[in-house]
Design brief:
The radius of gyration is 26 Å and the shape is globular. The chain starts with 10 loop residues before the first helix and ends with a strand. Helix content is about 10%, strand content about 45%. The chain has a single domain, classed as Maltoporin, Chain A. The strands form five sheets. It has a 22-stranded antiparallel β-barrel. A five-stranded mixed sheet has the order 1-6-7-4-5. It has about 775 residues and is mainly beta. The chain is built from ten helices and 35 strands.
C-alpha cells in the first residue's frame, strides 16, 4: 500500500478547485471486509466514508451474499438482493435473449453507469429493439462478469453525472474485484427446474499469486452452461397444420455456454508509487429460438420444411476489457492516478434452421447475418488531497481530474443470402447499406470538494464539464449534505443535474427484423437517424438527455446492530431518447416501397420523444443479533416504491403530414411500457442464521403488480397481480469444504397467464415483463473448497 504523507495547504491547489469543473472517479479501498463500517469507494473521494456516513444512499453487497442463491448470473443475483433493481427474463426477443438488460429505479438500463474498480465499463454492441423492458437501450452486459472475481459491489442509488459523466442518471454500480496474493477457492454447482429442463452447470476458481515481494496477481475463471427451458403451449390455431395440437414453439431461457477469465493485479515500485491492472475475456455462445414458422405459413417452403420450422439465432458475444494505470502519493500529499481503459464487445449472429423465401427451394438453411462491435477507450488523470482548514471539523478533500474518451461502433454486413429479398427468416442479415464504422470523442474536466464542516454537518459539491464531438457540450453539478441530529439519527440530501449522451448504437444501428404486433408479423426496419428515408419519416439529430435529481433521506441507528435508511427521490429527464413505435399501415408500406425498401411493412427510429418524472422511496434495514450458544441471526428488509409519469410528448414533425403519413411516433405501447411495465413496488425480507458449521438462508420477495398496454385499445390492457417468491438454502462447512443445497422459487410461483382477449392466437402464455421470469421452481447443489 502507498504510505501517507503529511498534508500542507496549497494556494495552487485551491486555485485549481475554482478553475476545473466536475467530479472524480472512485478508487479502490484498502479494506477487505464488507459491513456498515466498511469504507466505501463509490460517489466519494474522501478516505473515511462508510455506508452509514455516506452523503448519498448506497448499498454494499458482499461476495457471500452474491453466492447465496442458485443463480449463476450477476444481474439475476443483483435483482434478488436490490429492491430497486428490475431484471426480467424475456424470450423470443432476438439479441435480448442473449444479453438481457437490468433497470435501476425503473429507468432505462442505459441510465445506470457500471464501473469496475472505479473505472467506466464499456457497453454492449447489441440493441434491445424488441417490445420488452429496456427497449431501445444498449447497456453494459453485467453477466459477462463472473461472480468468482467479485469481492463486493457498491450500488449508488443517486444521480452522479457530475462525478462520473454520461449515463449516471439512475445511479452507479461499482464492481470491486478480489485482490491480494493470499487465499482462493474452487466451486462447482448443478441445478435444474422442476419441469425437468433448464439444467445449469457452473465451475469456477479464484486464487492469488505473488509478483515478487512487491505485488500480486488475482485470477478468476468460470465456465457456465445453461440448457434451454420451454413454457410454450400446444398450438391449436390451425387444424390444417401437420403439427396441430403439439408444442412447436420454444419460450423460455436459451441454450447458453460462457467461459470467463478475470485478472486483477498490482505491483509497488516503492512506498509512493504502484502500478495496477485488471481485465477480462468472456466468450458466450447462445442459441435462442425465434417465432415458429408453421408449415402453411407464407414464410415457409414445404419442400424444405414439410412440417414448418423453428428458426434459431446462434450468436457469439465476446466481451473484453483491460485497464492499466499508475498511482501514487507526492511529497506534498497529493494522491494521483493515471490510467488507460480499453473495452470492446463483439456480437456475431448466425441464423440456423431457417430459409430465405426469395431463394425458393434452393435456399440454404443456415446464414451468417453479420457482426456488431462497440469499442471504448478512456484515459484518466485523477488527483486528490486533504487540506487542513481551521474552520472545518475535518479535512477538506479536493479532487479534480481530466478525461478523454473515444467510442467506435461498427456494423459488418452478413453474407448476401442473409439479406437478399426477404432475407433470412427471423432476422435478416445486415446489408451493405447498414454496414459502416462511426466514432466520436469526448473530453471532460471535473472537480469536487468534500468535508466534515462541523462535527454534525458534512457536505460536498461537484462540477463536471464535457465536450462531445457529435452533439456539443454538457455540464453537470451536484450538491450533497448530511446532518447528524444525534448519534442515532442523521438526515441527508442531494440535488444534482445530469445528462446521458445518445449512444452510437442509438444513432447508427439499422436493420430489418420481424416484429409481432397484436400477434401479426410485420417486417419492420430500424433506421439510423441520419438515413434520408428516416428523415422523411420525421427523424432528427439526437440530443443529449438532461436530468434533474433530488433526494432526501434519513439514517437511523438506534442500536449498534440495527440500521435503517429511508430515501425519497425524484428524477426528471428531459428529451428522453426512445425508440419510436413501429410505424406501419398502407401509407407507410407504400412510402417505403417507393423509397427503395420493398417487402418492408414499417419503420422506426430513435427520437428525443418524451419528458419523464420518476418518483420513489427506498427503505433498507439490517439487524444482527447474537443468540450466544444458539448461533447468530442477520435480518434484512428492503423496499422500493417507484412511479414514472410522462410529462411531455414531442409533437409529430411537420414532414410526416407533408408526406401524408398519419402515424403516432410515441404511442400507448411504449408509454405504457415506461410508466406501468415495471412493478411499482418490491419488498425483500431476508434472514441468515448461522450455528456452528451450519448456515440457513431465506429470502422472501414480493414483486408488485405491473401492466401491459395494448397498442390501441385500452380495454385490452392487462394488469398482472403481485407475486411472492421464496428462496431457501442450507450450507454446511466441513473444514475447508462448504456444501450447499437450495431451492429458488420454492412455491413454484408463475406470473399470471396472458388472457386470450389481450393476446389472441398465441402459444406464449406469459408476459415478457415478468420481474421473476416464468420458469418455476429451481433446485440446486453446490460444493466449494477454499484456502
Amino acid at each position: 500500500m502507498l504510505r501517507s504523507r503529511p498534508l500542507r495547504p496549497s494556494l495552487l491547489a485551491l486555485s485549481l478547485a475554482a478553475a476545473f469543473s466536475g467530479g472524480a472517479h472512485a478508487q479502490q479501498a484498502a479494506g477487505s471486509g464488507v459491513d456498515l463500517d466498511t469504507v466505501i469507494v463509490t460517489g466519494t473521494r474522501t478516505k473515511a466514508r462508510t455506508v452509514t456516513s455516506s452523503l448519498s444512499p448506497i448499498d454494499q453487497i458482499s461476495a457471500k451474499e452474491l453466492e447465496s442463491s442458485g443463480a449463476t448470473e450477476l444481474a439475476t443475483v443483483l435483482a434478488r438482493l436490490l429492491p430497486s433493481l428490475n431484471f426480467p427474463r424475456p424470450s423470443v426477443t432476438d439479441a435480448t435473449d442473449a444479453v438481457r438488460p437490468a433497470q435501476l429505479r425503473g429507468l432505462s438500463p442505459d441510465h445506470t453507469l457500471v464501473l469496475v474498480n472505479g473505472k467506466r465499463r464499456h457497453t454492449t454492441s447489441i440493441l434491445n429493439s424488441s417490445g420488452t423492458q429496456g427497449r431501445g437501450s444498449a447497456p453494459v452486459d453485467l453477466n459477462a462478469i463472473p461472480l468468482a472475481a467479485v469481492e463486493r459491489i457498491e450500488v449508488l442509488r443517486d444521480g452522479a453525472a457530475a462525478q462520473y459523466g454520461s449515463d449516471a442518471i439512475a445511479g452507479v454500480i461499482n464492481i470491486v474485484l478480489k485482490k491480494g496474493a493470499e487465499g482462493g477457492g474452487v466451486e462447482a454447482s448443478f441445478g435444474q427446474y422442476s419441469e425437468g429442463d433448464g439444467t445449469q452447470h457452473k465451475q469456477s476458481a479464484h486464487f492469488g499469486l505473488p509478483l515478487s515481494d512487491s505485488g500480486w496477481l488475482r485470477v478468476a475463471v468460470e465456465k457456465r452452461e445453461q440448457n434451454s427451458t420451454n413454457r410454450a403451449l400446444a398450438d391449436f390455431r390451425n387444424p390444417a397444420e401437420p403439427l396441430y395440437g403439439k408444442v412447436s414453439q420454444r419460450f423460455g431461457d436459451p441454450d447458453s455456454d460462457q467461459e470467463s477469465v478475470f485478472l486483477n493485479g498490482q505491483f509497488a515500485f516503492n512506498a509512493d508509487v504502484e502500478a495496477y491492472f485488471f481485465g477480462n475475456y468472456t466468450n458466450r455462445n447462445t442459441r435462442s429460438a425465434g417465432f415458429y414458422r408453421a408449415a402453411l405459413d407464407s414464410r415457409n417452403i414445404r419442400a424444405i420444411y414439410p412440417n414448418g420450422y423453428l428458426p434459431i439465432e446462434a450468436s457469439n458475444s465476446i466481451d473484453q476489457a483491460f485497464v492499466a494505470g499508475v498511482r501514487g502519493v507526492t511529497d506534498s500529499g497529493w494522491r494521483w492516478d493515471l490510467s488507460a481503459n480499453y473495452g470492446v464487445n463483439r456480437y456475431r449472429l448466425n441464423i440456423e434452421n431457417s430459409l430465405n423465401t426469395s431463394l425458393g427451394a434452393s435456399s440454404p438453411t443456415r446464414f451468417y447475418d453479420g457482426e456488431l462491435e462497440n469499442v471504448q477507450t478512456v484515459i484518466n488523470a485523477d488527483f486528490a488531497r486533504e487540506f487542513s482548514v481551521g474552520a472545518l471539523a475535518g479535512p477538506l478533500t479536493l479532487a479534480w481530474g481530466l478525461e478523454t474518451r473515444n467510442e467506435k461502433y461498427a456494423i459488418s454486413a452478413g453474407e448476401p443470402n442473409s439479406y437478399f429479398g426477404t432475407g433470412a427468416q427471423v432476422f435478416a442479415g445486415f446489408r451493405p447499406a447498414d454496414a459502416g464504422t462511426n466514432s466520436r470523442n469526448s473530453k471532460a474536466v471535473y472537480a469536487s470538494l468534500e468535508a466534515d464542516i462541523t462535527k454534525k454537518l458534512s457536505g460536498s459539491v461537484a462540477l463536471r464539464a464535457e465536450n462531445y464531438s457529435d452533439f456539443g457540450d454538457a455540464t453537470s453539478a451536484k450538491l450533497a449534505g448530511r446532518y447528524a441530529v444525534s448519534p442515532a439519527v442523521a438526515l441527508r440530501g442531494t440535488a444534482s443535474t445530469g445528462f446521458r449522451a445518445p449512444s452510437l448504437v442509438q444513432q447508427y444501428y439499422s436493420t430489418t427484423t420481424t416484429s409481432f404486433i397484436s400477434s401479426v408479423p410485420y417486417d419492420v426496419r430500424t433506421f439510423s437517424v441520419s438515413d434520408p428515408v428516416a428523415r422523411q419519416l420525421g427523424a432528427e439529430d439526437l440530443k443529449a438527455e438532461k436530468s434533474t435529481n433530488f433526494s432526501l433521506g434519513v439514517v437511523l441507528q438506534p442500536l449498534r446492530n440495527l440500521t435503517t435508511s429511508i430515501d425519497a427521490y425524484q428524477v426528471d429527464i428531459r428529451d428522453r431518447i426512445v425508440l419510436s413505435e413501429n410505424l406501419t399501415g398502407a401509407a407507410v408500406r407504400n412510402f417505403l416501397t417507393a423509397n427503395g425498401y420493398p417487402n418492408t411493412d414499417g419503420g422506426r427510429y430513435f427520437t428525443n420523444g418524451i419528458d419523464t418524472r420518476t418518483r420513489g422511496i427506498d427503505l433498507v434495514s439490517t439487524y444482527r443479533f447474537d443468540l450466544n450458544s444458539r448461533g447468530r441471526v442477520d435480518l434484512s428488509l428492503g423496499f422500493n416504491y417507484n412511479t414514472t409519469d410522462i410529462t411531455h410528448v414531442a409533437a409529430n414533425p411537420a414532414i410526416l403530414a407533408q408526406n401524408g403519413l398519419a402515424v403516432t411516433r410515441i404511442g400507448r405501447a411504449e408509454t405504457g411500457r415506461i410508466t406501468k411495465g415495471v412493478p411499482s413496488d418490491k419488498l425483500t425480507l431476508g434472514a441468515d442464521y448461522g450455528l456452528g458449521a451450519w448456515n440457513l438462508r431465506g429470502l422472501l420477495t414480493r414483486y408488485g403488480e405491473f401492466t401491459a398496454f395494448h397498442a390501441s385499445n385500452p380495454a385490452l390492457d392487462q394488469t398482472f397481480n403481485a407475486a411472492w417468491v421464496l428462496d431457501l438454502a442450507a450450507s454446511y462447512r466441513l473444514r475447508k469444504w462448504t456444501f450447499t443445497a437450495g431451492v429458488d422459487n420454492l412455491t413454484d410461483r408463475y406470473p399470471n397467464r396472458l388472457t386470450a382477449a389481450t393476446t389472441p392466437n398465441t402459444v406464449l402464455p406469459y408476459s415478457q415483463s415478468s420481474p421473476f421470469g416464468f420458469n418455476g421452481r429451481f433446485a440446486y447443489l453446490k460444493a466449494g473448497y477454499s484456502w
